[in-house]
Amino acid sequence: MEKIDGGVTAAKGFLAAHTAAGIKYQGRDDMAMIYSKVPAVAAGTFTRNVVKAAPVKWDQQVVGESPFVQAVVMNAGIANACTGQEGMGYCKETADAAGSALGIPSQAVLVASTGVIGMQLPMDRLRAGIGAMVPKLEDTRQAAAAAAQAIMTTDTHKKEAAVTFTVDGKTVTVGGMSKGSGMIHPNMCTMLAFITTDLAISHELLQEALSSVVDDTYNMISVDGDTSTNDTCLVLANGMAGNTEITEKNADYQAFVEVLFEVNKTLAKMMAGDGEGATALFEVKVINASSKAEAVTLAKSVVTSSLTKAAIYGHDANWGRILCALGYAGVDFDPEKVDLYFESSNGRLKIIENGVATGYSEEEATKILTADAVTAICDMKQGDAEATAWGCDLTYDYVKINADYRS
Questions:
Q1: pLDDT (tens digit, 9 = 90+) per residue, 279-322?
Q2: Taking the alpha carbons of 284, 290, 293, 294 in that order, is the dihedral positive or negative?
Q3: Which of 114, 190, 297, 395 is catalytic?
Q4: Residue 407 annotated in ligand binding
Q5: Per the record, where is site Involved in the stabilization of negative charge on the oxyanion by the formation of the oxyanion hole (predicted)?
Q6: Which CATH superfamily is domain 2-273 in?
Q7: Is 232 annotated in some ligand binding site?
Q8: Maximum distance among all Cα pairs of the chain, rounded to whole angstroms
């Protein structure tokens, strides 16, 4: 496995485009498109929120029923959620317009939206955006980067990743982009993520691979505890690497799962660290827990604690908040055995041992907590299971951003 500089155009046969359609934002790109030169198999994971946006429902049907997919059309600014039958009709209109412009069936087009809930899409602008993007489709690095930029809402920077590995003597590439900064507390995947690969793999195994990596990547991040109506992760595989199609869970399949995990973990961490108003990525590692399920529960409890997140923002080694968050997670453990460490690029420090303070230096702890990425390591001393969750600090700006988001 080798990490490379790339995004959704890194894999063979994938092109991207972007445009400023004026969907809601003015003076910036707000639409993007991914296109495969040849038909691709597609897999997806979606929000478990009962309130599902129209694009989620459309994509669930396409991924489940369409024999192939070749394009994804995305817009930022308006989520097309809670928009009734009119919103569902707009998904079909979007797919029809893209299918017509690209010369592919409407059922080969996936759609994705992000932004304000409850507003209807201005379809004249969206159709014009599709018309503007199709002639601009390119397989360049710049096209991928611009597409990743175009789908942002409150994100402060684009999020991309790409990895290469070898299958059947062929070089295979997996690339992707995502967006997400607020309303991030996934229970399937993330707000929006798009992965492309030139691997040849069956539809069934592609879906199994994606589903298998979601729990330890997107499901382990949280910014604010709110699960979006639009959470969508899509993977397209077009087979242009030329490997023998993977149809069983052999060593090649396992290698792909590892690479897919790495790409999605990278994107997930980027989203957690770019939480609305955030100044630091907050990572929580629970080690030596009784079971993986308990480790996951404990790590999530700490990473979502508002009091702990506020302490991270204040560079305050307020370890009592972490121990408290472990305690109300619903997991039985002995608090008088827990050790806690803070770690960052500025050093590592044991804060508590067997449930009590170590007499650590507050000055040293503050230094560690001033880094851009901070890790809390919770040693439960109960077993050998572990889990890692990612979040961010809680700042004044989070409230400012969300107090007037619609306006």
A1: 999 999 999 999 999 999 999 999 999 999 999 999 999 999 99
A2: negative
A3: 190
A4: yes
A5: 114-115
A6: L-amino peptidase D-ALA esterase/amidase (3.60.70.12)
A7: no
A8: 69
